[in-house]
Amino acid sequence: MKILPIGIPGAGLLARLHAEAFAAHQAWDEASFARFLQTPGMGALVAQEEQEPMGFVLYRLAGTEGEILTLAVRPAQRRRGAGRRLAAAALAEMGMNGARQVFLEVADDNAAAIALYEGLGFAQAGMRKGYYAAENGGRVDARVLAYRFGEACGCEA
Fold first, then answer.
1. What is the average pLDDT score of the chain?
2. Is 156 a catalytic residue?
3. CA 99 to CA 26: how far, in whole Å?
4. pLDDT interval class at 155 (50, 70, 90)
5. Which residues contact 150 (CB under 8 A, 6 or more apart)?
6. DSSP for residue 75
7. Is 121 within a domain?
């Protein structure tokens, strides 16, 4: 498995992977990814195996704070380490570029993602009530997780 940077020309691929990984009402379109990737401090990494994309991570760095905006792994590729490798690579990139802490939001009912992030050293820093739209028209809370360099998984810069 290779983890590679991906830029604006890859916005269409990111949109397709995001649509595979998330429910239709949560998927981001190509134009959104292109706008994100044009923004200073944004970065994206893609995991691929034998030229086949498995997933990606989109992150942002602003000063000493980073944020993982989304991490998506194709359903057929889950449980093979791509998500962990992508998140760790994003942490390393942000850490090497000055981040002292990284934040993200994850749906409170997404046990697999919570376990992945906690396994990397993220800890709960707060909750956002009703942050995500649910397929049934309801709302799902988001956990705000924080990673502080020097206190966790060895991903320090």
1. 90
2. no
3. 28
4. very low
5. 156
6. G
7. yes
Question: Among residues 117, 118, 131, 151, which one is catalytic?
Answer: 117
Q: Which domain holds residue 28?
A: 2-148
CATH number at residue 46: 3.40.630.30
Q: Is residue 155 part of a domain?
A: no
Sheet holding 139-148, edge to edge: 2-5, 42-49, 52-62, 65-73, 101-107, 139-148, 123-133
In a domain, 74, yes or no: yes
Angle at which helices 111-120 and 82-96 pack, to 10 degrees?
A: 40
| CA separation for the pair 93, 43 (Å, rounded) | 9
Q: Exposed, middle or buried, 94 (CB in 10 Å: 0-12/13-18/19+)?
A: buried
- Counting the structural domains of the chain, the total is 1
Catalytic residue among 105, 118, 135, 156: 105
Distance CA 25, CA 39 (A): 24
The answer to whether residue 117 is catalytic is: yes
Residue 153 lies in a domain: no
Mean per-residue pLDDT, 37-62:
95
102-151 per-position pLDDT tens digit:
999 999 988 999 999 999 999 999 999 988 877 777 888 899 999 999 86
Q: Alpha-carbon dihedral of residues 110, 76, 89, 57, nearest 10 degrees?
A: -70
